[in-house]
Design a protein that fits this description.
This is NAD(FAD)-dependent dehydrogenase. The protein is of the alpha/beta class and 446 residues long. The chain is built from eleven helices and 25 strands. The chain starts with a strand and ends with a helix.
Length: 446
C-alpha cells in the first residue's frame, strides 16, 4: 500500500504515524512545503510573552523523528496539483526546483487551514503580521521585542491571547473586532464581560463593533481605519480566524461552501481511497448532531489517528466533537464545551442556560476562590449541549467532564445526580458541576 499524506501539522503527523504503526509494510510519503512538522501554533502568544521554556518543545515531532518511524518525509516539497480519481500528484521540490508526477494507492488530505486575510487596502504592508505558522511566530517574536504600540485585529482566542500577553509585557495594545464583545463566538455575555473589564484594567484599548476598512503606512508605523475611527501603532497583527486550505481539490471532492472537505465517520471523502482530516475537513458536532467546520488541534489529532485506523478498511468510527477548549487570560481560566445559548440560536438549536457562582471548596479551608459555571441544554429533550467555567482555580477538567456528558447524550437530570467525590481539599459536598446541573433542572422545571 502506497500512501501520500499532503501536509504535516497535527492531522498529517498523526495520520502518517498511525498508518505506519498499523501497517508496517505500507509505503507512507509525507509532503510538506515547510521545513518543520507538528508546530504547536497555539503557543505563539505564550512565546511572544516569554512563557515558553524552549522553542524546540513547540514541536512534538521532527522530520528526522518521523523518518526513524519508517515514514518517507519530503520537506520543502509542494504538491502543485492533484488528480484525486487517478490518485496522481504533481510535486515540486522547492529547493532544487525539480518537478515530478507520482501515483499512489491512497491519498490523505491534511493541508490544514489558512489565515483569513480579507482584501482590504494596505493589508499586504510589511507592518501587518499574520499569526499562524512557525515563520509567522519567528517574525512576531522578533518585531514585538522592538516596538511599543501594537494593534491586534480579531478578539477570538488568537487575538485575545496576543492582546493579553502583549499588555502584560508593557505594550500599548489596541484590540479591534467587528463584534461587540471580546470572545463573542466563544463565550456568553456574562463571561466576556469579565474579560472585557480585565483588558480595560490592563490598559488595553477596546475598539469593538468596528470593521476594518484599510491599512496605511505612516512615517513611524501603521494606521488602521475602521468604519468608526482610526488607530495608529508601530505594527498590526491579524488574528481573524481560519479557512480550509483546500482550493487545489475544489470540484474534485464534496465540500462545504467554505471549502471544508466532507468526510464520513471513517474519514473517507466522496472519492474512493481519498481521506481528509484536521482543519481541511468537516467534523461531526455532537451538540447539533450535524457536520460543521471547527478547526481545533484536538479534532485534527483524533481525525488523523482515525485515518490510520481506517486506511485499509473501515474499522473505527469517529465519535464526534464537542469543540471543548480553554484559555487563560490575566490569571483567569476559562474552559468551555459545546454551545452557548447565543451560538445555539445561530445553529438552529432551541436552548436555555443557567449560570451560578460558588466557591470551589469549603470556606473553612484557609483559601478558596469562586467558580462561575454555566450549563446549556436543549429545550424539550433536556439534552446537555454546552457548558462554561471561569475561575482563578483550574477548572479545565470540568469542561472535559461535560464534554463527555454531551458525547454520551446525557440530560441535565442525569448530570445533576452523577456521582462526584467530596474531599475538602478538592471540592464541596456538592461539586460545582453538580450544582450547576441542579440549577438547570430547577429552572427547566419551572
Amino acid at each position: 500500500m502506497k500512501v501520500a499524506v499532503i501536509g504535516s501539522t497535527h492531522a498529517g503527523v498523526f495520520a502518517a504515524k498511525q498508518i505506519k504503526a498499523d501497517h508496517p509494510d505500507a509505503e507512507v510519503h509525507v509532503f510538506e512545503k515547510n521545513q518543520t512538522v507538528s508546530f504547536l501554533s497555539c503557543g505563539i502568544a505564550l512565546w511572544i510573552g516569554d512563557n515558553v521554556s524552549s522553542t524546540d518543545k513547540m514541536f512534538y515531532e521532527t522530520p528526522d523523528s518521523m523518518a526513524k518511524q519508517g515514514i518517507s518525509m519530503h520537506m520543502q516539497t509542494l504538491v502543485e496539483a492533484a488528480d484525486l480519481e487517478a490518485k496522481t500528484l504533481n510535486i515540486k521540490d522547492l529547493v532544487s526546483g525539480a518537478q515530478s508526477e507520482e501515483t499512489f494507492d491512497k491519498i490523505v488530505i491534511t493541508t490544514g487551514s489558512r489565515a483569513i486575510k480579507p482584501r482590504i487596502p494596505g493589508i499586504d504592508s510589511d507592518k501587518v503580521f499574520d499569526s499562524k505558522t512557525w515563520d509567522n511566530a519567528n517574525a512576531l517574536k522578533e518585531v514585538t521585542e522592538k516596538v511599543k504600540r501594537i494593534i491586534v485585529i480579531g478578539a477570538g482566542y488568537i487575538g485575545a491571547e496576543l492582546a493579553e500577553q502583549l499588555s502584560v509585557n508593557d505594550k500599548e495594545v489596541t484590540l479591534i473586532d467587528g463584534l461587540d464583545r471580546v470572545l463573542s463566538n466563544n463565550t456568553a455575555p456574562e463571561f466576556s464581560s469579565v474579560f472585557q473589564k480585565a483588558y480595560e484594567d490592563h490598559g488595553v484599548k477596546l475598539a469593538l463593533g468596528q470593521m476594518v476598512s484599510g491599512f496605511e503606512d505612516t512615517a513611524d508605523g501603521i494606521k488602521v481605519t475602521t468604519d468608526k475611527g482610526t488607530y495608529e501603532a508601530d505594527i498590526a497583527i491579524l488574528g481573524i480566524g481560519f479557512l480550509p486550505n483546500t482550493a487545489m481539490f475544489r470540484d474534485q471532492v464534496d465540500m462545504l461552501p467554505n471549502g471544508a472537505i466532507k468526510v464520513n465517520k471513517f474519514m473517507e471523502t466522496s472519492v474512493k481511497d481519498v481521506f481528509a482530516a484536521g482543519d481541511s475537513a468537516t467534523v461531526f458536532y455532537n451538540p447539533t448532531q450535524k457536520d460543521d467546520y471547527i478547526p481545533l488541534a484536538t479534532n485534527a489529532v483524533r481525525q488523523g489517528i482515525l485515518v490510520g485506523k481506517n486506511i485499509a478498511e473501515p474499522t473505527m468510527a469517529y465519535q464526534g466533537t464537542q469543540a471543548t477548549s480553554a484559555v487563560e487570560l490575566y490569571e483567569m481560566a476559562y474552559a468551555s464545551t459545546g454551545l452557548t445559548v447565543q451560538s445555539a440560536a445561530r445553529k438552529g438549536v432551541e436552548a436555555d442556560s443557567v449560570t451560578i457562582s460558588e466557591d470551589y471548596r469549603p470556606d473553612f479551608m484557609l483559601s478558596t476562590t469562586p467558580v462561575k459555571a454555566s450549563l446549556t441544554w436543549e429545550k424539550g429533550t433536556r439534552r446537555i449541549v454546552g457548558a462554561a467555567f471561569l475561575s482563578k482555580h483550574d477548572i479545565s477538567q470540568a469542561a472535559n467532564v461535560v464534554s463527555l456528558a454531551i458525547e454520551n447524550g446525557m440530560t441535565i437530570d442525569q448530570l445533576s445526580m452523577t456521582d462526584f467525590f467530596f474531599q475538602p481539599n478538592f471540592g464541596q459536598p456538592v461539586n460545582y458541576v453538580s450544582s450547576v446541573a441542579m440549577a438547570a433542572v430547577a429552572k427547566a422545571n419551572k
